[in-house]
């Protein structure tokens, strides 16, 4: 069995909880130790019960909490060596440092982890598929575009947390400076609602039933708009939306614990 709960999502911080009967992990720790602790307590889990933290990439919205967590708790923190190099300034406790290699599976307790490379402007960015028994969940945010390899890796996920960062129009008309707009919409930036909805339409035919839209931009998106863009794409492709569960990770509320037996 596998439990999945997104604790925080978006440019202000990302953290997702995944567990089996015996193993608890976090994917990213992009908010303060205190905030993560508070969110976990709502699931009756303490930070001391976390077996590992997996880091997707060094950006602060994915790593903010690791300095304090690594000093207060003895939790192994996994990142690639390039990502660790890029996180030097965080001065994480050396004793917690663990390594993985992109595109090579590894195990944490009874969870199998497959880190796969994604196109993003970071040292060695990865997304993760986590497996337990016959269940698979995938967390894939922070990517400028979706490649066929990434699509393939996301197939057959029972739950997929996929980035739906910005609405193109809202980004274009918004307050961000030109260079930042270009970065976000670039090949190594973030995924738009449109790109996410196209990936979801494809994956809905490839065994994925449960989609969570995540990493929404506060300035360049709206939850309803992200949600509606996906629905429209599914409808356009004559896909029966009633067969799928679609939700938006809520930045302020933990309401999306999903349990797969
Ligand atoms: Zn990033
Ligand atoms: Zn991010």
Write up what this structure looks like.
- The structure is a single chain.
- The protein is α/β, with parallel strands linked by helices.
- It has one domain: Ribonuclease Z/Hydroxyacylglutathione hydrolase-like (Metallo-beta-lactamase, Chain A), CATH 3.60.15.
- Helix content is 28%, strand content 25%.
- The protein has helices at residues 33-41, 60-63, 66-72, 81-86, 148-154, 168-173, 178-185, 193-203, 223-236, and strands spanning 2-8, 15-19, 24-27, 52-54, 77-79, 97-99, 106-108, 111-117, 126-132, 135-140, 159-163, 210-214, 245-248, 258-260.
- The chain has a seven-stranded mixed sheet with strand order 6-5-4-3-2-1-14.
- The structure holds zinc ion (2 copies).
- Residues 57, 59, 120, 122, 142 line the site of one zinc ion.
């Amino acid at each position: 069995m596998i439990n999945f709960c997104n604790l925080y999502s978006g440019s202000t911080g990302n953290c997702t909880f995944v567990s089996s009967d015996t193993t608890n992990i976090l994917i990213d720790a992009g908010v303060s130790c205190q905030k993560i602790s508070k969110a976990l307590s709502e699931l009756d889990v303490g930070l001391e019960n976390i077996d590992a933290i997996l880091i997707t990439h060094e950006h602060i919205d994915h790593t903010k909490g690791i300095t304090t967590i690594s000093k207060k708790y003895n939790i192994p923190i996994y990142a690639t060596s390039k990502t660790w190099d890029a996180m030097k300034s965080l001065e994480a406790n050396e004793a917690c440092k663990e390594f993985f290699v992109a595109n090579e599976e590894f195990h944490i307790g009874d969870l199998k982890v497959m880190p796969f490379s994604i196109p993003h402007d970071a040292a060695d960015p990865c997304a993760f598929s986590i497996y337990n028994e016959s269940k698979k969940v995938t967390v894939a945010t922070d990517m400028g575009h979706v490649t066929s390899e990434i699509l393939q890796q996301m197939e057959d996920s029972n739950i997929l947390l996929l980035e739906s960062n910005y609405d193109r129009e809202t980004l274009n008309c918004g307050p961000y400076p030109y260079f930042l707009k270009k970065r976000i919409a670039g090949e190594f930036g973030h995924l738009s609602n449109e790109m996410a909805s196209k990936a979801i339409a494809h994956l809905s035919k490839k065994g994925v039933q449960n989609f969570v839209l995540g990493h929404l931009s506060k300035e360049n998106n709206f939850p309803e708009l992200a949600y509606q863009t996906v629905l429209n794409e599914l409808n356009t492709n004559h896909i029966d939306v009633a067969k799928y569960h679609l939700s938006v990770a809520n930045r302020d509320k933990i309401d999306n614990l999903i349990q797969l037996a």
